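Annex B. Sample input.
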Amino acid sequence: MNRLAMLTAGVTLAAGVLSVPQAVAAAEAAADVLSVDFARGTGEFRGGATGTLYGFGDDGAPTQALINGAHITNTSQKAPYGTQHPSGDAIKVEDGFFRKHGEDMYIYVQDYYPDWSYHGGVRPGDTRTYNQADGTYTATPNGIWDYLEVVEFVTEAVATTSSRPEDYVFIPFNEPDGGNWYADWGTLKDTFLADWTATYDKIQQVYARHGLGHARIGGPGDTRWQPERSADFLGYAKAGGVLPDVFIWHELGIDNLRTFRSHYAGYRALEKRLGLPPIHVNITEWGMLRDMGTPGQLVQWLSIMEDLKIDGQTAYWAYAGNLSDNSARTNAANAGWWMFKWYGDLAGSRTVAVTPPALNTVDTLQGIAAVDKRNRRATVLYGGGDSPVTLRLSGLDRDVFGKRVDIEVREITLTGAEGVAGAPPVVKVLDGVRLDRGTIDLDVPTYDRYAAYQVVITPEQDRTPVAGAVWSTAVEAEDTRLTAATVYDQDPLSGGGWKFLASGSRDVGSFNRPASRAEWTVTVPRTGRYRFQVIGAAPGVPGRHALFVDDANPVIVQYTADLALTSVQRWQYRGSSEVTVPLTAGTHTLSLRAGLDGATVLPNSDITLDKFLLTDVTDGEPTAYPASTLRYFGGAHVTYDTSRARGHGQIRGKRERADAYVHAWETGYHDVGLDYRSTGRTDVDVTVNGRAIATVSAPRAGAWRSTVRLHLSQGINEIEIRSKRGVLLQQLTTTRVAAADAAAVTIEGEDTIRHGAVAVTTHAGASGSNASGGKSIGYVGSGAANTFEVVRRPGFDRPGAYDIAVTYANAELGGRHDYNPQVIDRRLDVTETGGGSAYGYFRYTYAWNSFLEKTVPITLTTAGGSLTFGNPQAYAPDIDKITIAPAVLGQPVTVPRR
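Annex B, continued. Sample output.
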């Protein structure tokens, strides 16, 4: 039986309690119990635990959809004009950060220095004179401490160039107890305390002279909880009137899941002993490599911080611009992103008491639960255990939820740092369960402890919740029939947490011989087309495998390169590759092989394999986003008070809206359907990724389905729904329509008109490159003359809104760091002759012959103006091809719905 069938088959209901067949119940006798008491509140949802350190690179890296969907409220970035990293300047990324959910922009002032540890690890003296106008300096003393001049320059930049200076938090010192200037507390305590006062006062002076009021300052910023240093620091700061506005330390390491709460308790006890009011806490670095992108790990950390009502930021272990390895490719979600998104969905709710099997224990079942009374929605997020789980839910208020409730359980499993995770599937439902005494027991078999689950409880809705709407199944690579390959154990506790985890804690390697193969026998329910996804790691170079179906009809599986600059990334920084194959109903053997002929290997086929997934995409993989799961703003909310519209989102007026974050497996056209009711003639405005793109209409009162064919970007797309006259939205559905992609025009880079130094590169077949046609163009930019041009042609020869999907490579690094690749986001400008313009920043792709795709939206205002691509200031990315597509095809269609 496949996993989905196992999760949904054989459910019976008795007295509002879920039970399972006797045989399954016996197998699950040792289930972990997570108790949730919805009647015992623990405070307003804080939502600050998914902050990020250097999670932002440059504008658009990550994309706005990823930022907004992840609901990031706080981040730490480098100081303005800082040289510690090539990207991540706070001023340059603040617009995207503050656009929707951003609240607090922290900056590491010491990141003005280029090296780690800062200034060679030695406290600077007075050997320089800084020019406060531009930050340059001469090697001459001037009687002022050098770092104090840096602090002034950085603070001045925020005060004068930021649009939100009041929302910044300055961190003068980062890990002063480590290798940064003040490690020896016995001899350097007085120096640090005096330096704290000097920097604190200087920051306040700069804000005062610009009339900005009090500047918020965070510290001390130690590498770990340091009771002695903290006591000395707080006592001194209280006496001198220089207390931090945010108290900061770091929680790094595996055992911190056990000790975190005791550290926090020690801090609060210290405050009381010193007679201090509570100071807000932000753990500006938390977690290890093994936690990033792994929902079952992330939920353990998030549950602690949300329980304590403090903020936290994921540690920076790889590179800037990918939310600390919690996003994939240029615009896609990995499993970690969905965990962030689920957590952000709790905004506006109140958390309630959760009792796990054990607190303060490493790698165990933990959870977060909350009630949103406005939208009449209760949510439980949980994961981290490797046993079946019984949720013991109590205290559900019948005044809020009524006599019967609907329950939907969604699952997200580990896909690796670069592996794409689609919209989390519904794996279990309870439809119209009677709410006896506000108590329900819910049993959910657990796949592995790296997975996480979202349980949404609502009053009974007018729609019928469905599990397994799209057939899908999965298998661990180590559980397939292997030839000439080796299974490796990947202990999550080894290496002190310095490793990226493998699903099931094992993977398959040494897949590097002509005979290497992994064979999976699987039964599919019907004849159609199926997406085969491989989770694996291509170490620093693109590579290839061949997929055989029943020992015939091989299809090339093309992998893009994954991060492999250090030993802890190589073979472990997993991505994904997807191909679509036709299958007839019945049983098949899918054989993934290192070679086509059994005698030679395909280029760079030495790729580790973690997991395979197979999904039916015959019907375009229709995916529903119910109103009960959307985010609402401006007064919009879910209502259960309107006949035939129970569980619909009520949206009315200019300020009200609903936000949906929809996933597209590939760039191209999708039918976006809106199911809704109206009380009269109405219009619904649809905004996609920040562009008002379409309006659908209903002619009179009734139930309707409006469909608009939209061009969506691969990955996450933000869709905003508004209605001035009012609408009761039941759900939004996306369906892939691949045949419509014929409306888009693709131009290979080598077929464009090249100017200046732009040149064609041919990629040898042995390189494993995924360049279309084996060619790309480079040396674009770094001068106004170095451009390529595309002449208008049918398909984009009219004014209007278009998407330009750019397939590109960018492996530029700048500077050095002990463990972080210093990636540079390259910019590409697009200019329409006589018309509009657009630009995009293009993130790191790990190799110059490994190509990813990013979409640049543009509004063309002429019918014939050529499109010119370049960057006069610096090099643009190398270009494989571009695809230009109208943002909308045809006219929206509205039909009555029963």
